[in-house]
Amino acid sequence: MSDQSVSLLQIDGLTKLFGGLRAVSDFSAGLPEGALHGLIGPNGAGKTTVFNMITGIYVPTEGDIRFDGTSLVGMEPHLITRTGVARTFQNIRLFQDMSVLDNVRVAYHMHAGYNLADAILHLGRFRRQERLQSDRAQEFLAVFNLTNRRDELARNLPYGEQRRLEIARALATKPRLLLLDEPAAGMNPVETDNLMELIHFIRGQFKLTILLIEHQMRVVMGICEWITVMDFGQVIARGTPKEIQSNQRVIEAYLGKRRVRGL
Amino acid sequence: MRLTWLRTPLRIIAWMVYAALSLVIVYGVYRLIQFKGATYFFQALLDGLRLGFVYALIALGYTMVYGIVRLINFAHCDVFMVGAFSSYYAITSYGWGIVPAIILAMVVCIVLNIAIERMAYKPLRNAPRITALISAIGVSFFLEYFTALRFVFGADFLTYKRPFDVVVWNVLGLSISNITVIIVAVTLALLALLLYIINRTKVGKAMRATSQDATAARLMGIDIDRIITLTFGIGAALAGAAGVLYAIAFPQIWTFMGIMPGLKAFIAAVLGGIGNIAGAVLGSLLMGEIEVLTVSFVPFGSRIRDLVAFLVLIIVFLVKPTGILGEPQVEKV
Amino acid sequence: MALLDVSDLHVAYGAIKALQGITFTIGEGEIVTLIGANGAGKSTSLRTISGLLRPVQGSVCFRGVDLTRMSVDKIVKLGISQVPEGRQIFPKLTVRENLEMGAFTRRDRNEINDSMERVFSSFPRLKERLHQLGGTLSGGEQQMLAIGRGLMSRPTLLLLDEPSMGLAPILVEEIFSIISQINSEGVSILLVEQNAAMALSVAHRGYVLETGKVALQGDASALLANPQVQEAYLGEG
Amino acid sequence: MSMPQARCLPTWLTTLVVAVAVFVIVTMLYARGIMTSYVYNVLQLACIAAISALGLNLVYGFNGQFSLGQIGFYAIGAYSSALITKEFTTYWSGAQFSTLSWLQAGMIGVVVILWAANRLHLRQLFSRLNKALAELRRMERTILVAVVVVLITLVLVAVGAALTWVLQLGISALLTALIPALPAAAAQSVLFFLALVTSAAFAALVAYLVGKPLLRLHSDYFGIATLGFAIVIYTILQNSDMVIATMKGARGMVEIPMWTSWPWVFGILFVLVVVMRNLVYSSHGRAIISVREDEVAARQMGINVPNAKVIAFAIGGFYAGMAGGLYAHLIGFLHPSTFDFVRGFDPLIIIVFGGLGSMTGTLVASGLFSLIIEGLRVVLPQGFEDWRFVIYPILLLAIILLRQKGLLGTHEWGWLQPPHVLLREVAVTGGNPQPPEVIP
Amino acid sequence: GPAVAPTAGDATKAPGGEAPAGDGTVYKVGLIVPLSGDAKTFGISTMNGVMMAVEEAKAEGFNIDILVEDGKCDAQEGTNAATKLITQDKVHYIIGAVCSSESLPVSVLAEQNKVVQITPPSTNPAVTVNEDGTVKQYVFRACFLDPFQGVVMAALAKELGATKAAILYDVSNDYVKGLAEYAKESFEQGGGEVAVFEAYTKNDTDFSAILSKVADANVDVIFLPDYYNKVNLIAQQIKEKGITATMIGGDGWDSSDLELDLMEGGYFSNHYSPQDPRDVVQNFVKNYQTKYNSMPDSFATLGYDAAKILIQAIQEAGTDDTTLVAQKMAAIQYSGVTGDISFDEQHNPIKKAAIIKISGGQTEFFKFVAP
Ligand SMILES: Nc1ncnc2c1ncn2[C@@H]1O[C@H](COP(=O)(O)OP(=O)(O)OP(=O)(O)O)[C@@H](O)[C@H]1O
Ligand SMILES: Nc1ncnc2c1ncn2[C@@H]1O[C@H](COP(=O)(O)OP(=O)(O)OP(=O)(O)O)[C@@H](O)[C@H]1O
Ligand SMILES: [Mg+2]
Ligand SMILES: [Mg+2]
Fold first, then answer.
1. Residue B295: inside a domain
2. Fewest CB within 10 angstroms: B307, C31, D28, D149, which?
3. What's the structural domain count of chain B?
C-alpha cells in the first residue's frame, strides 16, 4: 500500500528498543488520506508502541515518520497534535476530575483564539471565543450522545461513555489523522456495533483518516478497508480483511485455528 | 561543505582543552590537600563521613516509611526526639547502660508511632495523599509543642550524659572516636538488615506490593493494615535508635532537636532516591561530605553550608530527576 | 449446599446504589457467569464477595460461612481468589515476583514452584518476560500475568473479571479453554464477561444483571437461546 | 453541578455585594474605634495569607505541582519591595529610585533575552548545525557547538545587559521626573503600588527561571527541590548584609515604611481573586487543570505542558511576591526567621484545609487559620500561653480527619463557581443522522 | 539539673485582686516573651525574673497588673502580641521582648503608641535607636550593648596573655554575631590575631569542620559568644578534638545549665556575680532559688532588673502618664542586681560587667570591669 499515490502518514523503518527488547523492529507502513486502516497483532507485538512513536510519547530508536510531508520524529507531543494527529489510549486517560464538557474544551485549547490577558480582563475576544468554544464542544458531545452528561465529572461516567468521551475529546483537537487504541475493549457486542457505526459516521463527518488497533475481530473485519498485522515488532502481513482472515501466518500467530464466535 | 580541513586544528584544541581541564582538577585536589596539610584534608573527609552516617541513620527511617506508604512522615523527626528523651531519662535517672537505653527508646518510639499511625494516618488511607502529609505536619507540631510543656519534657536544653566514656584513637594523625565507630557500625548493620527484610523476606515483598497497589495486595491475601503498622513500627525503631545515637554524638537534647537533622536526613534520602534504602545511605554520606568540605574549604563556607548542600541537591535532580539511585519514573502509555 | 450463596445483596458507593438486591448461587465445581451492560454491577458483585466492599444489606456465604464481615485476607485464605478488572498487577515487581505474590498465602516452596510451572505452560509468554517489570508489559501480557497470579493461590473459587479484555483472539480462545481446564480440576469459577457468547459457551449457568438487579437467570444454553439476551448482549438481534 | 436555575440575582452581583459589605463594615468598625488595631491587623494578615495561599492553590490545587517553595517567593517579594520603598523614604543608596529602576530594567532585560533565545529556536539551530557538521567526529563537533553556544549566550547577555543599562537610565529619569512632582500622598501611593507590582513580578520571574528546569521533576521530588530553593533563599537572606547593607541579614531590616492598610490589602486581594477566577475559568485555566489530571493526555490534546506548568508556577510566585510586599509594609520589619521553611507549610496547610482546587475554600481557610492562631491568644487564660501551639495542631488534625477533602472540597461559592454554560440547540452541520443510541 | 519553671499562671495572681493602693491607679504592664518555639526556655527565665520583681512590688503595695503574651521569637507574632496588648488590653508599659526580631517591631509600635517599653536582653542597637540616630523616646533596654561586652571579652583575653584567638559565632543570631564582631575588632586593635573567625547557624550541631580549623590554627583563646546551650555543645566537641585553649564567653553563658567541667579554666562576662555581697544580689539569688528551685540565669536577672527599673520609673513619675514615666526612666538612678544603672542618651544602660571565672567546677568572681 505504500505504493498508493499520496500517503498522509508514511512510516519507514521504524524501530524501538527498550533496553535489549526490540518492541518494534523495522516497521513500515503508509496511510492514504481518508483511509480506515486496522493494525492488529498478538499482545505485545508493538502496536501501542507504534502509536506512541507517532504521537511523540516515545522517540524512535531508528526510522522516520512523516505526516503530510513533515517528519514527526523528535517533535514534542503537543506540536504533533497541532499538526493534526489525535489519539485515544488503550487504558482510558480522561481528565477524571473535570466535567465532560471541560474535557472536550481542554482539547479545544489550541484553537482557543485568545490569550491570557483577554481571559483575565474578560475582553470581548474572550467572550466571543469562549462562546464559540462551548458551542463547538457541545456539538461534539451531541454527536457522541453525551449531551445529557455534560456537567458530570468524567470519572463518574460508565465505561462505554468514557470511551466515547475520549474519542470526542480527540476529535476536538481537529485532527486529520485519528489513532484509536482498542476503542471497543470492555464493550459488549451490542455496544461494539454502535461504536462501529459511530466510527464510520465521524470519518465521513470530520473527513478523517483513521488507524485503529483492535482485538475484536468483528470490529476490525467489519470496518477496516486494509489491515496490517504485526508480530514481534514486525509486519507479518498486509491486506484486505478477507486476505488477512485466510492468511495462514496470521491465523497461527493471532487469530487461532478455531474461529472466534461472535465475529 | 568540505570541513575536513578543520579536523586537525579542532582535535588539537580538544586535547588542549582536555589537558587543561585535567590539570585544573589535579591542581585543585592538590591545593585542597595542601591547603592545611593532608591530615586536615583527610580529617575533613572523615568528619564528613561521620556526619553522613548520622544522617543516614535518620534517613533510613524516613525512606523506609516513604517507600511503603508514600508518606513524607514529618513526624518522624519528632518521634526521633522522643526516643532521645526516653533514653535520657533511663540513663540519667536510672543509670541504664547504652544497650538497654536504645532498646527502651525503640520500644517507646514503636508504641508512639503506631499510635500516631492509628489515629492520624489510618483514617486517611483513602483520602488524597496530601491530606496525610498535612496530618503528619500536624502531628509533628503537636509533638514538638506538647513535649515542650513544663510537665512533659520541658523547654530546656538538656545535656545528654553519655553512658560511656569517649575514647579518641589517633590513627595516622587522624582522630577517630569510638562514637564514630559505633554509629558507622550500627548504620551499616541496620542497612543490611533492612535490605534483607525488604528484598528477601515475604513480609518485605508484601510491603513492596502494598506500596504499589494496596487493593491488589489485599486480593493476594495480604493484611495491609498489619503491613503498614509493621512498616511504621520498623520506621519508629529506626528513629529510636537514631535518636539515642544522635544524642550520644551531639550530647544535647531539647524538644525541637529533631527538625533540622530530620530535614537534612530526609533531603539526603531524596538525594539518594527516595524509597531506596541504599540510596538513603548514599545520599546521606554525600550530604555529610558536602557540608563538611564546604565548611572546611570554601570561603565563608560555614555560613553557606546549607546553601551549597541544596544547590548540589538541585543539580543532582536536574541530571537525575529521581535522585542518585532512584528508579526512573516509567509510565507505560 | 452451594459453594457460594449470595442473597439479597445491596451495595452502594456513597449515594450511588450499585447493587439493589441480587441473589445467586455457585455450586461446587460450577462455572457461573454474570453478564450485563456497562455499569450493571458485575464488578461490584465480585468486589463484595472478595471483601473489598461492604454490603449495605444482604449476605454472602461461602460454605456456610458469612463473608460480609470478614477481612479480605481472611477471605483469600478461605480459598477465594479474584482476578480484578483492569489487571492491577504490581508495576514495579518483576513478573516472577508478581506471581509469587499470588501465592502469598501458601508456604510450601515446591508446590508454589509447581503452580508456577503450570502458569508458564498456560502462558509461555510470561516465562519469556520473567524478569521484566510488570508495569512495562503490554496490555495482553499484563492480563495473562493477572490471571496467572490469581491461579497461584490454588483457589477453590476463582472470580474472574473480564479476563478476555484486550486479548488477542487466539488468547481469548486459549483463556476460555484454560478456564474450562481449571474448572475440570475442581475449581469453581465466577466469570464476568462482556463477550457473553463465549462466556455462556463455557459456563454451566448464567445470570443477567441489569442496573443492580438480576433480570434473568438460567442454564447457559437456555440463556444463549433466549432472544432477549441475544438482542441485548450477543448483538445478533 | 448546578442546573440552570432561575436566579433572582446574577452571581457576580451577590459576590460583589458581599465583598463590598465586608470592606465597608471593617472600615467602619475600625474608623469608629469599635474594632481595635489588633483585630484590624490580624484581618490584614489573614488577607495576606490568603493571597499567598491562592497562588499556591494555582500551583498545587489546580496545576498539581507539589511546591514547598512558596515562602521563598514571599521572601523575595517582601525584601525587594521593602528595598524599593525604603530607598524612596531614606535614600539609603544615595538615590531615590535606583532599586526600582534597576529591577524593572533588569527584568525587561531578562525577558528580552528569554524571548530572543526562544525566537532563535535554538534546538533546531543546533540540530541543523549538527547535521551540517555530520562529517566531523563527535568530539570535534562538540567543540564547534560549544563555541556557538558560548557566542550566542555572550551576545544575548550583552544585548540584555546593554538594554538593561539604557532602560535603567530612562526609567530612573522618568521616575525622578514624575513621582516627586506628585502631591506627597499620591507619590507615596504610586510608589507603593509600583513597588508591590515590581517585586511581585520579580518573584514571578524568579519562579519562572527556577521552575523552568525544576518542573521536569515529578511530585515529591519537585516538592523537595522547591523546599531546597526556599532554604537557599533563607540562607541568602541571612547573609544579605554582605551584599546590601540595608538588608542587615540576621539583624533584621528595620524602618520599612508601614504603608499597608486595609484598603490596600483588601483591594489587592479582591483584584487577585478576580484575576484568579477569570484565569481558572478560561481555556488557559482548563489547560492548567488538565495537566494535574493527566500529563500524558494533556500533551496529546495539544497542550504545551511544560509551559502550562511554568506559567502556573510563575503566577503562583507573583501572588506570593505580592503577599510578601504587603506583609513587609504591614509589619515594617523583616527578619530571615520569618521566612523559615517551617513557615512555608502555612500556605500548604491553608489550601488543604480549605479544599484543594477551591478558591472559596482558600479564602475561608485563610480566615479560619488566622482566627485559630490569634483567637487562641485571646481565648486562652493567662498562664496557658504555651498551649496555643498545642491546641492549634489538635484542631488542625480534628478538622482534617473529619473533613478529609478540606472544608469545602472542590466546591465554590457565588461568582467563584464555574460559569454557567448555555445549553445550545446544536444542529450537526451536514445534516447526517445522529448515531444510534448506545445501550444505557 | 532541669529547672522546674513555673507557668505564668503560678506567678500571676488574679489581676486586680488586691485593693488599689494610693490614688487607686492600676498600672497595666504587658510582658512579651517567647513561650513557644525553641526560645521558650529563655522566655520562661525572663518571665520568672520579671514576675519576681512584680510580686515584690505588689507586696509593697504597688498596684500593678501584668499580662503575658507569647511572642514566639518572631516578628509577626511579636507584632500581634504587642498590638493586642496595646490596643485590646490597653497596657501602658511593655516589658520585652527577648529576641531582637520580636523586640524591634514591638519597639516601633511602642514608640507610635507612646507605650514605655523596656527589653531585658535584646542587644540590637536598632531597638532603642532609629536609623537616623534619633532615640526612641519610649524604648529602653536593661542589658549592655555588644560593643561594650565585646571589648570586655577582648580585653580579658589580652590580660590573660593571649595573642592568637578563634571566634566562633552564630550568623543567625544577631546578639552572638554582634559580640563576635566587636570582640574581633577590639582584639585585633589590641595587636592580637584572630586566626579563625567562623560562623555557624542556629541549627548546627556538628562543629567538627570548624574545630579542625581551630585545632589547626593553634590558638590561645576561643571566644564563644553564644548562649550556654550552644556553648555546651561546642565545648564538648572542643574537648573531643583535644583543643586546650581557654574559652571566653559573654553573658549568654550565665546559666545553671552551663556544663562547668567542660569550660574549666574559662571566663565569661556577666551582669553580676552571685558572690557579690550586696543585699540586693544575695536576696535576689536566695529568693529566686526558693521560688524556682534553680540559680537565676542572665535572662532572669535582666528580667528582674528591667521590671524593677520600670516600676521605679513609674513610682518616681507618680502618675500613669507614659511620657513622664519615659522621662523619669531616661534619668533614672537605679541600683539593682546587675549594678548601679543609669541610661545613656541612647537609652542603653551604663553599668559594670562582672568577669566570672570557672575553676574547679565552680564559678567564682574574678573582677569588675567598668565601661
Ligand atoms: N516503556 C517500556 N519499557 C519496556 N518495555 C516496554 C515499554 N513499553 C512497551 N514495552 C514492551 O514492548 C512490547 C510491545 O508493547 P506494546 O504495548 O506496543 O504491545 P501491543 O502490541 O500494544 O500489545 P497489546 O495488544 O497487548 O496492547 C511489549 O513486550 C512490552 O512489554
Ligand atoms: N468507585 C466507584 N465510585 C462510585 N461509583 C462507582 C464506583 N465503581 C462503580 N461505580 C458505579 O456502580 C455501578 C456499577 O458499577 P460496576 O463497576 O459494578 O459495573 P460493571 O457491571 O462491572 O460494568 P463494566 O462492564 O463497565 O465493568 C455503576 O453505575 C458505576 O458507575
Ligand atoms: Mg496495546
Ligand atoms: Mg466491571
1. no
2. D28
3. 1
